[in-house]
Write a structure and sequence with these properties.
The complex is a heterodimer of chains A (526) and B (475). By secondary structure, chain A is mainly alpha-helical. Chain A is 71% helix and 4% strand. Chain B has one domain. In chain B, helix 13 runs antiparallel to helix 16. Chains A and B meet through helix 5, helix 6, helix 7 and helix 20 of A and helix 15, helix 16, helix 17 and helix 19 of B.
Chain lengths: 526, 475
């Protein structure tokens, strides 16, 4: 086990701290009283977690693909269930994304959440632990536990603090994800029975027969494709996004969706490289469909949140496209795109939350021509919208550009479809911006006439301003200088590509073996 | 004779005797309840104290080993929780409250005997002791003009019970006729050899097991469960749903362990069919239930199927898993019935719509329900997750892939109706109704149940080690 790990030398167990701090913080909320106190506590804990996670970036050794800051302890030796955590160039970025998005999601729900503050903060903090757990676990069962445990707080977030149809949306979210992951659990156990370990890096080294890889790949892909979400398994996402409270939407878009992409990179590609290559055309096809269908559907939405939700489907299509091009550039692009999507879409959902607090409507029609009334707000809206469809100079440009270059080297036809998706993205975002900022009305609908119609509008307050500015910094920082980010992940991606290269040989060797062999014979016959 | 060997039984018998006199006296309920609770706690202490004892009693018909003692701890703990849960016995006819305690204790006594019984006649008698007490208990529900369904439930339970007992006895006669012995210790030597040569033995074994499936509410003996749960008082249903099943699993493990090392062939297929039918019927029927107790009844039928999958592995991990699973099931179900008992203020049945807005009426009850339901759905980090995880692991190690796939799909379906419970409790409603007051001791019990569900799930090592040690005496 030690050959894959680099022990943590920071002087304190950083990953365990990140895991435990929010849990402990969540338990402490049960003893706190008063709305102010609770919100402040939530902010303190999430900020502390974010600050404590900074060494992950600074002290990260960019020259190795091994798992760093690792901690090992025996939790359940009976079945090789060890507590093993560690990060490599791929997961470390997601951990940082999580820790930095969380304080923002506390801030953006400061006045949005009207009741049950104690439970809200507690659920948010438990959620943070589970999400960090997903990214740092190096034991499959530990990973699965966090993966599933995450469903409960997210379900509660949508169900309790959600909108009118939160009931339907939360159930749909829960069942989709749960049904996707039951086969994940079975394949995890099959891997254990075959190899005698749940340790992820060790499983990556094992060369499985091709027909076995096919099964494993399909089981894993089902779970991750639902999470990403990939067309045609995306239908839970718009429902969940629309009904979730603003913090729920932000977490869902910024972090949860990334788990699908992370799963592909961490499990599908290294454990079943030959199957990944075998299914590559299918997944590229599905990704293209996601991109175009997501963009097309977004074009027709009248609800701002739904529009952004469908845009997520399209953006995540770019991610899966980049991943399954199985080239260095594609995966780099996919990684950057995931981080970017986390930042930009998170910001867009915060913006929707801000306007919803003022006008109590998410319909574009009700939020038209805000340009005169909320100048600061629309400034942010315009910038983040531009960033969303990959305007040069913003962060998404880098990711989309890398993916597009990779896709054009792979196939011109696929490239044309991807470009079509990018154009659609510009179309629906510009339509949104045009309506919300200028439109044709003079804004009379928004004046507070003291009666039943209209509503008071006020521009951003300091809290909202700071929340958005924080994300804005990253939009331009990554947009102009993606190098620090690339350096972190490059070694790991190179290593991943070596593993995928292995798949080429495996695929050649098993050229005659058709997939679909008897699973029982394969597992028992090792 | 080492008194420690028989200590839990003695404690239970003494308790039953004291309660018998209590039924004749006219004590205040408070006094009776305090005494019963204290005695139940004592039986738990006695059961724990006798952990690690080993020996044979009554001419080899009664074996005390780690396996039986572990189950005795479960059963006495279950008894304690059931009694603690039903403070006030809201659903029981006032003049029958002492009798309720008496019969609950007697039923547990029978189950405790069952875990140690090593001989078919002893097994039969123990089973009957526990069943007869339940036959009497089910119609005890308060009849204030509204509920007459307890009579229907009582009759159904007696009829099904008698039928399944008959079948079990019939099967035993075959086993005895072919193997020429009623002692399990002797049977274990001859049964594997006879499996191939006398197919009638398989028929006998299956019939015998089918009789025990009645207790576990497993297909094809599951019909009684929904009606009896619904008709019985909430506290009685809480008992029927949990503790007899623990006893039944103990017995099933003992019987199925007889066949280890043999080529089971058809025997496995028959039991696998039962397991699958149980899961499918249980889960699909549970989807459409409105009454929470009926829902839990169908869910328990499905859980019996999962346990059966673990038993079918016929290896150490499988049996240890079955123990872990049924113990976890007991705690999770008790948690759910705890909520049902407290929501049903007057002892009435609770429907899903009664649960709506529960988190406003009583945050604690809603949380206990959520933890219990998520546990039964197998969401980590609860005991339910590791139960399922071990079941899958054991089954995959034995190569039972088809069974695992069916179980997994069923687990997915079951999440839907467990989520219905949580959804009902947590979805905001306009008018949640009046606040439910849960007393201090009851709140503590709820928290303890939650803690048990979570802690056993987060640290399964110790519990699996104990279960493996218990199974070790059988293998």
């Amino acid at each position: 086990m030690d050959t894959y790990l680099i022990a943590n030398t920071l002087g304190y167990p950083i990953l365990s701290t990140l895991l435990l701090l929010p849990i402990i913080g969540g338990l402490v909320t049960l003893f706190l009283k008063g709305e102010k106190m609770l919100k402040a506590w939530g902010l303190v804990v999430t900020t502390a977690t974010a600050v404590l996670s900074l060494p992950l970036f600074n002290a990260f050794d960019r020259g190795t693909a091994l798992y760093q800051f690792a901690e090992v302890s025996h939790w359940f030796p009976f079945l090789d269930l060890n507590y093993v955590v560690g990060v490599d160039g791929i997961s470390v970025l997601f951990v940082l994304l999580t820790t930095f998005i969380m304080p923002l999601s506390v801030l953006c729900s400061w006045t949005y959440i009207k009741d049950r503050h104690k439970e809200f903060i507690c659920v948010l903090l438990l959620m943070e632990s589970a999400m960090i757990g997903v990214f740092v676990s190096l034991n499959l069962v530990l990973f699965f536990i966090f993966w599933e445990a995450m469903l409960v707080p997210m379900y509660l977030l949508i169900a309790v603090w959600g909108g009118k149809r939160s009931d339907y949306a939360s159930i749909k979210f829960f069942l989709y994800t749960l049904l996707g992951s039951v086969f994940l659990l079975v394949s995890i156990i099959i891997l254990y029975v075959k190899c005698g370990t749940f340790f992820i890096p060790a499983l990556m080294e094992v060369v499985f027969p091709f027909s076995f890889q096919v099964w494993i790949f399909l089981a894993f892909t089902l779970a991750f494709a639902i999470k990403v979400p990939m067309f045609p398994l995306h239908t839970w996402l718009p429902a969940a996004h629309v009904e979730a409270p603003v913090a729920g939407s932000v977490i869902l878009a910024s972090i949860l969706l990334k788990m699908g992409g992370y799963g592909f990179l961490r499990f599908c590609l290294p454990i079943a490289p030959a199957a990944s290559l075998y299914f590559m055309p299918w997944l590229i096809g599905l990704s293209l469909v996601s991109i175009v269908a997501g963009g097309y559907l977004a074009l027709g939405q009248s609800d701002i949140k739904k529009l952004i939700a469908y845009s997520s489907v399209g953006h995540m299509g770019f991610v899966t496209l980049g991943i399954f091009l199985l080239s260095t550039g594609g995966i780099q692009g996919a990684m950057i795109q995931m981080i970017n999507h986390g930042i930009v879409t998170g910001a867009l959902f915060i913006l929707v939350g801000i306007i919803y607090e003022r006008t109590h409507s998410r319909e574009i029609e009700d939020n038209k021509s805000l340009g005169m009334l909320m100048p600061a707000y629309v400034a942010y809206l315009v910038i983040f919208s531009l960033a969303s469809f990959g305007f040069p100079g913003t962060n998404s440009f880098v990711g989309e550009f890398l993916v597009l270059v990779a896709v054009f080297t792979h196939s011109k036809v696929a490239g044309i479809f991807a470009i079509l998706g990018a154009i659609l993205a510009a179309a629906y975002m510009l339509r949104l911006v045009q309506k919300m900022v200028w439109a044709d009305s003079d804004g009379h609908g928004h004046h507070d006439d003291g009666g039943d119609h209209g509503h008071a509008l006020w521009d951003l307050n300091m809290r909202e301003f700071l929340t958005l500015s924080f994300l804005l910094v990253f939009v331009f920082w990554i947009g102009f200088n993606p190098k620090p980010l690339m350096q972190v992940m490059d070694t790991s991606i190179t290593h991943l590509m070596e593993q995928v290269e292995e798949g080429h040989h495996q695929l050649k060797e098993s050229h005659h073996v058709a997939p679909g062999h008897d699973l029982a014979a394969l597992v028992n016959g090792h | 004779m080492n008194m420690l060997l028989f200590l839990p039984e003695l404690a239970l018998i003494t308790m039953a005797l004291v309660l018998f006199f209590a039924t004749l006296a006219s004590w205040s309920f408070k006094r009776l309840y305090g005494l019963t609770l204290a005695m139940a706690a004592t039986t738990v202490v006695c059961a724990v104290a006798s952990w690690g004892q080993e020996g044979m009693l009554f001419f080899g018909a009664y074996q005390v080993d780690a396996f039986s003692q572990l189950f005795k701890i479960f059963i006495t703990m279950g008894l304690f929780v059931v009694i603690a849960m039903g403070e006030g016995l809201k659903g029981i006819e006032t003049r029958l409250k002492p009798e309720y305690f008496l019969f609950v204790t007697l039923s547990c006594t029978g189950l405790v005997f069952l875990t140690s019984a090593m001989e078919l006649i002893t097994i039969f008698i123990s089973l009957e002791v526990s069943s007869f007490a339940l036959y009497v208990m089910i119609p005890f529900r308060k009849a204030d003009g509204r509920h007459r369904e307890q009579m229907e439930a009582g009759i159904k339970y007696v009829l099904f019970g008698a039928l399944s007992t008959g079948i079990a006895l019939f099967g035993m006669s075959y086993v005895f006729g072919i193997a020429h012995t009623t002692y399990l210790a002797e049977l274990v030597k001859v049964v594997p050899g006879l499996f191939a040569s006398s197919p009638m033995l398989i028929v006998g074994m299956v019939m015998m097991l089918a009789g025990f499936f009645f207790k576990l509410a497993m297909f094809p003996m599951h019909f009684w469960a929904p009606d009896v749960y619904q008709g019985a008082a909430n506290e009685t249903a809480g008992f029927v749903a949990t503790i007899p099943k623990v006893g039944a699993v103990a017995l099933l493990i003992r019987i199925i362990a007889l066949s280890q090392g043999a080529d089971l062939g058809d025997f496995t297929w028959i039991l696998a069919t039962f397991a699958v039918s149980s899961m499918v019927i249980g889960n699909l029927s549970a989807l459409v239930q409105e009454d929470v107790k009926r829902l839990l009844a169908y869910s328990s039928i499905a859980h019996a199927g999962y346990v059966m999958v673990a038993l079918l592995c016929v290896n150490t991990l499988g049996f240890a898993t079955a123990i872990y699973y049924i113990a976890g099931y007991m705690v999770m179900n008790l948690a759910c019935f705890y909520v049902v008992y407290h929501v049903g203020q007057e002892g009435e049945n609770v429907t899903l719509s009664d649960l709506s807005g529960l988190y406003k009426r009583s945050p604690l009850l809603a949380l206990v329900l959520a933890v219990g339901a998520f546990g039964m759905a197998g969401i980590p980090p609860t005991v339910g997750f590791f139960g399922k995880f071990f079941v899958f692991t054991a089954a995959i190690e034995e190569g039972l892939f088809a069974l695992v796939i069916i179980t997994v799909i069923n687990a997915g379906i079951s999440a839907f109706y467990y989520l219905k419970l949580v959804r009902a409790a947590y979805t905001p409603v306009a008018d949640p109704g009046e606040t439910l007051v849960v007393g201090k001791p009851a709140s503590l019990l709820g928290m303890a149940l939650m803690a048990a569900i979570l802690m056993v799930g987060i640290f399964p090592q110790f519990f699996m080690e104990v279960a493996e040690r218990a199974v070790g005496t059988l293998m």
